[in-house]
């Protein structure tokens, strides 16, 4: 399953929304973690999607990727139960909102 958060397209001056209009892409993986961490990650980074989360159901963790560049992300961090994730970065419509990792992995 995949979840893509996007800003309202009425705020998008272009006909085709740019990656910046999609502040977060989230994939939930049980058997496709390798594919998500390689093929999909490279595609999303090249497209400029600012944040990508992979929920690893078997490992009970969430890996957050930020700062896209070329075929990857400059920043990667793995979080587990007890950690919180920010939904938005500074200046984002989601700024200040967080979610408990336990809610994502349960």
Architecture overview:
19% of the residues lie in helices and 37% in strands. With 106 residues, the protein is of the alpha+beta class. A five-stranded mixed β-sheet has the order 1-2-3-4-5. The longest helix has 15 residues, at 33-47. The protein is flat and about 30 Å long. The two termini are 15 Å apart. Mean pLDDT is 82; it is low at 1-9.
List strands and helices in order, with pairings.
Layout: E1 2-5, E2 24-29, H1 33-47, E3 51-56, E4 61-69, E5 72-79, E6 84-86, E7 98-100, H2 101-105
Parallel strand pairs: 2-3
Antiparallel strand pairs: 1-2, 3-4, 4-5, 6-7
Short description, anyone?
The chain is an alpha+beta fold and 106 residues long. It has helices at residues 33-47, 101-105, and strands at residues 2-5, 24-29, 51-56, 61-69, 72-79, 84-86, 98-100.
Please state roughly what percent of the residues sit in beta strands, choosing from under 5%, 5-15%, 15-25%, 25-35%, 35-45% or over 45%.
35-45%
How many H/I helices?
2
Please give the order of strands in the largest beta sheet.
1-2-3-4-5
Determine the structural class based on helices, strands and strand pairing.
Answer: alpha+beta
Radius of gyration: 14 Å
Helix coverage percent: 10-25%
* Uncertain stretches of 5 or more adjacent residues: 1-9
Largest sheet: 5 strands, mixed
Element order: H for helix, E for strand? EEHEEEEEH
Question: Overall 3D geometry?
Answer: flat
Q: Could you tell me the number of beta strands?
A: 7
* End-to-end C-alpha gap: 15 Å
Residue-averaged pLDDT: 82
